[in-house]
Amino acid sequence: QVQLVESGGGLVQPGGSLRLSCVFSGSIFSIYTMGWYRQAPGKQRELVATITSGSSTNYADSVKGRFTISRDNAKNTVYLQMNSLKPEDTAAYYCNALHYGPGYVNDYWGQGTQVTVSS
Q1: CA separation, residue 75 to residues 29, 70, 88, 108, 111 (Å)
Q2: Which of 4, 28, 44, 60 is 20 to 30 A distant from 52 in Cα terms?
């Protein structure tokens, strides 16, 4: 069974940086599109960034130019480098693994890691 384990969250001052990591296990990491999503209290979960098996990336407009998603297939890990953090980036951040096969979809989530941006 696929497991996703996030780490790297914490408390950071506005303008600071954090790097989130998500370690994937239980299947073939390289075929999955990996993503980071976030959910703030009282709000819906929203897309932050995705990276395909071919390393094509996509970002929410709110994080473009500040966040960078990357993957290391040798380490089964996806990263989210977050720079110039703002208070509105405060949320629980979730790792997602998605793969479409013939007649099926595999869609997995991590348990989340909290990011708090505050002075």
Answers
A1: 9, 12, 31, 18, 19
A2: 44
